[in-house]
Amino acid sequence: MHSFSRSNSITSLSSACSDMDDTMQIFVKTITGDTLPITVPSSTSISTLRQLIALRTNLPAQDLRLVHAGKHLITSAKSDPSLAECSITRDSTLHLAMPLRGGAPKKIRCSFKECKDAAQRIVGDCGFCSGHFCGRHRLLEDHKCSGLEDCKKECHQQNADKLNSERTVAIKGV
């Protein structure tokens, strides 16, 4: 029967069994570059080691990711492998990593009813209804824009102003 005692410095988990050769010292390199020496039995599970490291670093245990030999040491509800099962031996170095947050930006989809196509950048944005549209629905008539009448009036006024500014006046008597 094994009973575990916790040392005052939270650096080791020592077994009360008579076989002290079972314990080993491993090193954990943190994100800041510090190296933590930890003495644990080889039968220690990865989740127990993660809890021990969480106590030492004051970081939440669920956010810690341990990497050994380029592989992430993953625990699940079904399996919680020991250090020996993960080929972690005496004087091994584990690297601490934080989980990745975020990801790629979400693609903007067409705002037209049931269309699932990606919206076109810049040319797919409607200034009248603030919608984002794909190539098939980007024109005001195609997506039945509520600002269509305002757009037509605005365009008509712009064209009229342009024509008036370019009008030539015939001078009589020259």
Layout of secondary structure:
Elements: E1 4-6, E2 13-15, E3 23-29, E4 35-41, H1 46-57, E5 65-68, E6 71-73, E7 93-97, H2 148-165
Main traits of this protein?
174 residues, alpha+beta, Ubiquitin-like (UB roll), 2 domains, 5-stranded mixed beta sheet, two-stranded antiparallel ribbon, 2 helices, 7 strands, disordered N terminus
The count of DSSP E runs of length 2 or more, i.e. the number of strands, is 7
Give the C-alpha Rg: 34 Å
Main structural class: alpha+beta
- In terms of DSSP E residues, the strand content is 15-25%
What gross morphology would you assign? rod-shaped
Average pLDDT taken over every residue: 79
Q: TL;DR of this structure?
A:
The protein has 174 residues and is α+β, with helices and mostly antiparallel strands. It is built from two helices and seven strands, in the order ββββαβββα. The strands form two sheets. The chain has a five-stranded mixed β-sheet, with helices on one face. Strands 1-2 form a two-stranded antiparallel ribbon.
